[in-house]
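User: Batch of two.

Assistant: Item 1 of 2:
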Amino acid sequence: MALTIEQLNAASATDAVALLDGTYEHSPWVAEGALAERPFRSLQHLKAAMAQVVTRAPAEQQLALIRMHPELAGKAMESNALTAESTNEQSKAGLTACTPEELARIRELNAAYGQKFGFPFILAVRGPRGTGLPKAEILTTFARRLNNHPDYERAEALRNIHRIAEIRLNDKFGVSPELGNQVWDWQEQLAVHSDPGFAEQGQLTVTYLTQAHRACALQISTWMHEVGFDSVEIDAVGNVIGRYEAEGFVTSGGAVPGAPTLLTGSHYDTVRNGGKYDGRLGIFVPMACVKELARQGRRLPFAFEVVGFAEEEGQRYKATFIGSGALTGHFNPAWLDQADADGITMREAMQQAGLKIEDIPKIQRDPARYLGFIEVHIEQGPVLNELNLPLGIVTSINGGVRYVGEIHGMASHAGTTPMDRRRDAACAVAELILAAEKRARQDADSVATVGMLNVPGGSINVVPGLAKFSLDIRAPRDDQRNAVIADVLAALEEICTRRGLRYTLEEAMRAAAAPSHPDWQARWETAVESLGVPLFRMPSGAGHDAMKLHEVMPQAMLFVRGLNGGISHNPLESTTSDDMQLAVLATQKLLDNLAKEQR
C-alpha cells in the first residue's frame, strides 16, 4: 500500500526514518535531518528537504553518500548484493542482461572512472522519464562524464543521487507524474521532424518554414484539437494558436467574442543541432493544462490562448521573434525580401507554405483585450541544476547590446620585432576580454562576452596587425547594462591609446531589459510556493518571446531546471518528467488563482 504524506507526518521519528529507508542508499541520516521540517506540505516539500540536508552536509559526508552506491553492473550486481531499489533500477535499464561485450566495456569504464575520481559512477539509470535509459545512452554518458573536472563530477554524482531518490520516493508514495509524462511524450514525438542534412545524422534542427517546420505546426495543431481547444489555427506567419474559451462565451454557434484573455506560449523552431525543450516546453505545459480543464469540463472566467510561435531563433533569415513580433505589430516587411543560404526569400517560403502574407497586419493583438502574457521555459543555464531546485521565478529578461569591432595595429616579423615595439592587435583584444570579464563580475547578474576573435590572414610568425572581435554585454536592468558598457568601452579606448592602435566599433543589436510585471511575478511565486517548492528568483540571461510581448502587455516567466549542467542549444538539453509535472501544476495553480481574482 502506498505511503502518504499524512502517515509520514504522523509517524514517530524512528518510524518515519524506517518508512523512508532506501531512499538515499544506506544513508538514513538524510531522512533524519529532513524530518526537522515536518509537517511536510507535499511530496515535493519532502524531496526538497532531503536534498537540502545533503547540500548542507560536510564534503566528507557527501563523499561517503556517493561511495554507498554500487558500481553499474559491478561486483555487487554479480553477487546479488544490491539493494532491492538498485536491483530494480539496474534491471529497468537492462544492466542485468548485458552482453559480454557490454559488460567488458562497463568494467573498463568503471575502472577508469574509479581511478580518476575515487568514487563510483552514479547515474539515475531510470532516466528523465523514469522508465529506464537505453544501454547505449548509459555507455555514452559514462564515457562523456569521464572527461569532467573532479569537482564538477562530484556535484554531478550528487545530482544523480537526488534524481534516484526522487524516483524512489515516487515509488514509495505511488505517485506518477502523468502530466509531466504527457509533456515529455509530446516533445519526443515532435522531435522526429528535423531539417534535411540534420535528420540523417540524428540531429534536431527546425528552421523557419522548412518542411520539418511545417510538419511541426501541423502536429501541434492536431494535438491542440485532440486535447480540447475550442479553436485552432495557423496564422499568417506560421504561429499555431489554440484558444480555450471563457465560461459564458461558448454557444452552440461557436465562441462569443469579447472575453478577457490570458496569453501564453513559446517557440517551436530550434537552433541547428539543438535540444528538444527550448521553446517547446512553453507550448506543451499549457497544453497539458487545457487537456485537464477539458477533461474536467471546467472553464475559466477568461479565455486561455496558447501560441506556438513560429520563429524566435533567427536561424534561417536575419530576423528574430518573427512569431511573437507579428502579434505585437513589429513584423518588418523588409524581411520578406531577405534570402536564405539557398537563395529562397522569406516571401517565397511563406508562399510555398500557403501563408497569406497580406493577412500579417491582421494578426496584431489588441493589448486591451489581454490580461497579460506568461511563459514557461527551460532555464538554459546551470543555476537551478546546481542548487537542486526544480523551478525558478524570472525577475527580468536581461537587456543586451552587441558590437562587432576591429583593432588595427601593424603586422610585423614575430622574430625581429622587439616586445616593446610591437603594435599587436590580438593582444589588445586579449586585454579587452579580461577587462570585460573583470568589470562584469563587479555586478550581480551582469555578463560580458567576447565570443568571436579572428586574426584575418594570420600567420604563426607574424605579429597580428588586425583583429576582429565581437562584444556582448547584458544585465537585468538597462541602467546597469549601460554602466558596464561605458566602463568596457572606456577600457577599449585606454588599451588602444596605450598600445598605439586604432579601433572601429559598430553596434549590431540593442534590446531593452524586460522586467517581470510585479503582479504576474507574484502570481508565479504564489503558485510555486503552494507546491512546496522553495522559491528562487533569478534573471534570464537569454532572450525569449516574452521580451516582445513585454512591449505591449505585462509578462512574467517561470523557469524549469535543465539536466546535464543545464546545457541548452545542444542535443544534451534535457529535463525530467517530474520537473515538467511541477511546471504544469504551477501553471494550473496560477490559472486557478487568477480565476478567483476575476470572479
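Item 2 of 2:
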Amino acid sequence: MKSRFALAPLWRWSKWMIVTLSLLAVTSGCMASSNVRPMPKAEQGVIDLREWSWNEDGIVPLDGQWKFEWFPPSGNDNPKSSSVLSTLEVPGTWGSMKTGNGFPLQDQGYGIYRLSILHESQRDMMAIRLPNISTAYELYIDNQIVITRGHISQSASETLPFQLPATVYFKAQNSQTDLKLVVANFDHRRGGIRTALVMGNADHIQKLQIRHAAQELIILGCLIMIGFYHLGLYILRRKEVANMMFALLCLFVGLRMGLIGEGYIVQWIQAFNWDLATRFEYIAFVMSGWAGFGYFQAMYPLEIKRIWFKISSAIAALLILCVLTVPPLIFTSWILAFQLYIILFSVRVLAGLVLSGLRHREGAKLALIGVAGLVLTIVNDMLFYNGWWRSTDLVPFGLLFLIVMNSFIISLRFSLTYERAELMSAELTEWNNSLEERIAERTDELQRSNVTLENATIELERMEKSRTQLVSNISHDLRTPITLLQGYLEALRDQVISEPEQRDNTIRLMLTKVEGLNSLIQDLFDLSVLEARKVELTLEDIPLTDWKERLMEQYELEMQAKQISFHCELAGDYSQGTTVSIDIRRMDRVFANLLYNAVRFTPQGGSIAITMTTLPDQRAVEIVVEDSGAGLDPEDLPYLFDRFYKKDKSRHSSTGGSGLGLSIAKEIVELHGGEIRAYNAQEGGSVFEMILPMSS
C-alpha cells in the first residue's frame, strides 16, 4: 500500500497531462485556417477568383451554386429519362436538397455539375482536390476528361461504383477554366458531393494532401500499435478479457479508417472493390462498437451487467448478418439502425461509468471523460453523414482520445497488479496453485465417476424394465397353451381319451400347441434382440423393380389359391430407377406379417395391393400395403404395434397370431431408418404405410 500511495502524485499529474494533450490533439486537427478574408462563392455556375492570390491566400473551396442537370432514375431502368436543368448547392447530398427551381432530388440517379472558374492566367500548375463522391464520377476540365472513378451510366445495371479521393493537376493559362463533373449513384443511400472540392496551386494542394495523409497514417499507426500491444498482453494472460476487447476496438477502428478517407487499404489490396470495402466498413463500424462495449463491461462488471453484453452481441450479429446478405443500397439506407446501436450502448457505458465514478473505481473518471468526448464526436459524425451538419469526420480523434486515456488506465492497473503480486508470498502462491490443481483433478475424477454411475443406473433401469416386461409377456401368453397341454396329458394319463383316432387327434393338437409355443418363444427372442439394437443388418442395394418382382413371385400363387386378387406396382415417374438399401431377409418377414394379416381378414373375391412410390424431395420410398377387408377398429390404432396387444379382432388368439408380428415389423422398419403406421382407407379396408430411405 505504501508504493501505491507513492504513485498517487504521479497519477494525478499524468492524468491532467494526458487530458490536456489529447484535447490539444483533437482541436488541432479540427482548427480552420486563420485566414480572415471571406471565401468566394459560386453563383449561377460561375465563381470569380480573379482577385484571389494563390500564393498569399492559399487554397479556396469551390462552394456555392453550380449549374446542375439532373437525370432521375426511371422505373424500368431506361437511360433516356428526361433531365431537369437548374442549379444546386455544393457541397450537399442529393436526397437532402432541392435544385434552384425547387425540384426535389433523390439519392439515386445521375447528375452533371458544371462550374466556370474565372481567374488570372497562371504560369504554374494548378490543382483541384476531389473528396469521396458517391459513388462514381468523371471530371472534365475544359471538355477534356482528367479523372474517372468507377464507371458512370444513367442505367443502374451499368454503373460501377468506386470511391477514393483524388487530386488532378492542370494548366490554367487562359482566364477561364470550365469544370464538368458527371456523378452517378445507384448503390449507396447518399449520392452527390458530401464535402467541398478545393482548388489551389500545385504546391498548396500537395501540402494539403500530405497533411491529410500524415494525419490519417499517424492515427492509423497508433491504433494498430496499441491494438497489437494489448493483443499481446491478452495472449500472455488469457484471463484479462478486457485486453482482447481493447485490442479488437483499436484494430476494427483502424480497419474502418483504412477503408474510408484516403482509403489506404483499398489502394493497398486490389481485391477490395467498392462493394467489399463498403461491407467491411459497416462490419468494422459495428464490431468496434461491440468491442468497445465489451471492454467497458469487462472493466466494470459490477456496474455493467453481462446481460447487456449478450444483448449487444445479439444485435451486432443481426446487423452484420444484414450487411452480409443484402445489397449495399439497402443496408446503407439502414444507417440509422447502426448509429442507434452505437448511441444506445455508448449511453449505457456512460451510465455505468458515472456509477463507477461514484463508487471510486480505478480509472472510472478518466474513462468517463474519454467516453463523453467520443460520444460527442459520434453525434457530430451522425449529423455529418446524414447530411444534417456541415462538419468533418471527428470520430477518429475521439477514439484516439479515448484509446490513449484507456491505455494509460490499463497500464496503471497492471502496475498496481504487479505491485500487489510482489507483496504476496511465493510459498503461499505455490501452495494455492497446488491446491487448485488437486481440486481440479478431484473434481474431474468425481465428474467422471458421476457420469459412469449415471450411465450404469440408466442401463440397470432399462434392463429391469425389459426383464419385468418380458416376464409379464411370457406369463401372459404362455399360461393358456401350457394349461391346455397339461389338461390333454392328464386326460391321456387317466385314459379319459382311449379311442386311437381321438388319441391321435389329441396328440396332433398338442404338437400344434408346442409348435405355437416354439414360434412365440422365437418371436420373443427376435423382438428382444431388435429392441436392444443388437442386430447386424446385411444390407444390399435392391432396385424397386426387383423387389416388386420378388414379392409377386412369393405371394401371387398363394393369393390366387385363396381367390384373392393380388398385385404389386410402382407409382411415380422416378420409381423405375430407385434403389433401397435393405436386409432383404428381414424385410421379407415384415411383408409376411403384413400380408398374412391382410389375408386373414380379406374375404374371397377381395384384393390386396402393394404400391411403391418414390418421394424425391424426402429422399425416401413410400410402400403401401392395402386390403379390402373389414378394416381396423379406430380404438385399436394407437396400440396396434404394441407387444401382445390383442383387443383388435385381427390380433385375437383364435386366429393363431402371437401378438408380436406387428411389433417385430415395426422394429425392423425402424432399424432400417424408416417408419411405419396404420390407418383405415376411406373406401374400407386397412392400410399399412412404410417410409424407407433411398440408397445413398
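The chain has four domains: 46-196, 210-417, 464-533, 540-693.
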